[in-house]
Write a structure and sequence with these properties.
The complex is a heterodimer of chains A (319) and B (210). Chain A has ten helices and twelve strands. Chain A has 319 residues and is of the alpha+beta class. In chain A, strands 3, 4, 7, 8, 9, 11 and 12 form a seven-stranded mixed β-sheet that branches. A five-stranded mixed β-sheet of chain A has the order 2-1-10-5-6. In chain A, strand 1 and strand 2 form a beta hairpin. Classes of the chains: A alpha+beta (319), B mainly alpha (210).
């Protein structure tokens, strides 16, 4: 089932995301007009619905393939199939439950062992750091993967502004804690809030991205709006979503997954086909939208760029 | 032997999940990762049916719902069917019947070994499920079919180990299974409802009609 998709042919987000709302609206609005619109994506304007998300641009990308020639994953799969346990442990749950997630106003407090602690609003981030497109492979620890055109900027740009001190060895990142908005945070199944960490050299690496968009559009809530981390050579769970806090610290941070299952999730979580996980095959993976399995590559195919970070380290022990 | 209404309903209800799965698969409606959805949902169905199979006897004894004893074998066979389907999705669709891959999965993953043990234990039960064999084997049949509890326990353990972080639902299954098991042990296995409610006897008669 191999097919090339022009980004203009991809179902617009407003169509996909608010399909449920369309169904509800259809009770009051003209059902026929709505159905006509829904059956012909890309043709004509959709009926104006007040519930549309603000970013109604069609998804666009500069290329259909990543640096290794892999086809991009289609936009609908990226926004409909997510792991975001703050909303739901079901893959399609976050898409439904995160629609009213408030990302305005939003700010990210950057502090800890820095010379210049600072809280950035999303507007400041937008004006201070120029956004660029990065097409990265995303490998989930569950054995599936996507190829995603992110919009964002290297985390090192932001870290340079706050000036880490000589004592800073690690970066600790934290997701919003707001059980009113994130229903699963009301349960005790995980030690909320979500925490992730990187060694400072990993955080300063040029591949490490703070992403604010996908396919030229703003991030959807289920994908981690308004700002998230993307570390393409590590398993997806390292790429923490909806960040509110970034701290430079001396000690290795304990991530949420390390705290809840230390034998399954290590601090590094580098994509590695030679280190088995008790549940999922890490030797091969399934690329979303394609049939068949493909081999998983060491460091998710970014070995040339990042292997030097781990020279002399036993990657089986430091999984 | 004539087929009862209860048995017809059981067949219809048990064929619904697979119909939805096959239909959903070919209509591309099973999330962006349909094979994972097939795996999860076939597994859930198998565990649910195993639980229902084991619930037949206590419900029949306690409430006098004897009609359930006529559908127990059918439920058990469908449980086996969904467990087998679950395995075939794993080995065939997910790992393309690539023996090396499948073997690596089984070798390195205790949760798959446990799930597979559950499926293997269900094979002799499925094979000996006919009325003829049941009568022929007598006491030995009863003994053999107690393996259903072992298979169910293994499948719940498999479910628990396969869960990522959220263990609430598998734990509920575990408690349910424990409850079903102690209902079969003395003195609880002698529990009988003194007065069968009217609607229960009506339901029972309805389900027993051929």
């Amino acid at each position: 089932m191999k097919h090339l998709i022009n980004s203009s042919e991809i179902t617009p987000e407003e169509l996909y995301v608010s399909r449920r709302r369309f169904i509800k609206n259809a009770l009051t609005a003209s059902a026929a007009a709505l159905l006509a619109g829904a059956c012909q994506p890309g043709q004509g304007d959709l009926p104006a619905a007040p519930t549309l998300t603000p970013d109604t641009k069609p998804p666009t990308a500069s290329s259909l393939r990543d640096d290794m020639g892999n086809l991009l994953t289609d936009y609908n799969s990226i926004v409909s199939y997510t792991n975001y346990y703050e909303f739901s442990t079901d893959k399609q749950g976050p898409t439904r439950l995160a629609q009213s997630f408030q990302t305005v106003p939003w700010s990210v407090a950057v502090g800890g062992l820095v010379g210049n602690p600072r809280t950035f609003t999303t507007e400041e981030i937008k004006s201070l750091f120029e956004s660029e497109e990065r097409i990265y492979r995303m490998r989930c620890v569950e054995g599936w993967s996507m190829v995603i055109p992110w919009m964002g900027f290297p985390l090192n740009r932001l870290l340079e502004v706050v000036e880490p001190t000589a004592r800073a060895k690690y970066v600790r990142l934290e997701t919003l804690y707001d059980p009113d908005q994130m229903p699963n945070q009301r349960t005790q199944i995980f030690p909320w809030p979500y925490i992730e960490g990187l060694r400072l050299d990993e955080a300063m690496h040029d591949l490490t991205l703070l992403a604010t968009g996908i396919y030229g559009k703003s991030l959807t809530p289920q994908n981690g709006a308004p700002i998230r981390l993307v570390v393409p050579w590590k398993y997806g769970f390292k790429s923490i979503k909806s960040i509110v806090k970034i701290d430079l610290v001396e000690e290795m941070p304990v991530s949420l997954w390390m705290a809840s299952a230390p034998n399954e999730y290590g601090f590094y979580a580098n994509v590695n086909p030679n280190v088995n996980h008790p549940r999922w095959s890490q030797a091969t993976e399934r690329r979303i939208g394609q049939n068949g399995r493909i081999d998983t590559l060491l460091f998710n195919g970014y070995e040339d760029e990042v292997a030097n970070l781990y020279q002399g380290m036993d990657l089986v022990v430091n999984f | 032997m004539k087929i009862t209404r209860g048995q017809i309903f059981t067949h219809i209800l048990c064929l619904l999940p697979i119909s939805f799965l096959v239909l959903g698969y070919f209509r591309n409606a099973l999330t962006a990762n349909p094979i994972q959805a097939l795996t999860l949902r076939s597994g859930h169905t198998a565990v649910n049916l195993l639980m229902l199979t084991l619930a037949c006897r206590p419900l029949s004894d306690i409430f006098g719902l004897t009609a359930l004893m006529k559908i127990r074998v059918i439920l058990g066979l469908y449980a086996f069917f969904y467990a087998l389907f679950h395995f075939l999705v794993f080995a065939g669709l997910d790992f393309e019947f690539n023996l090396k891959w499948v073997w690596e999965e089984i070798r390195f993953k205790p949760f798959i070994q446990i799930g597979l043990s559950s499926l293997v234990l269900l094979i002799p039960l499925a094979v000996t499920s006919t009325v003829r064999l049941r009568k022929k084997m007598g006491k030995r049949w009863q003994l053999l079919h107690r393996l259903a509890y072992v298979a169910a326990a293994l499948s719940v353990l498999h479910y628990l180990m396969a869960s990522k972080g959220d263990f609430v639902i598998p734990a509920i299954y575990g408690m349910l299974l424990f409850f079903l098991l102690i209902l079969r042990l003395p003195p609880l296995n002698k529990t009988r409802l003194a007065n069968q409610p009217r609607w229960v006897s009506n339901l029972n008669q309805f389900l027993l009609k051929t």
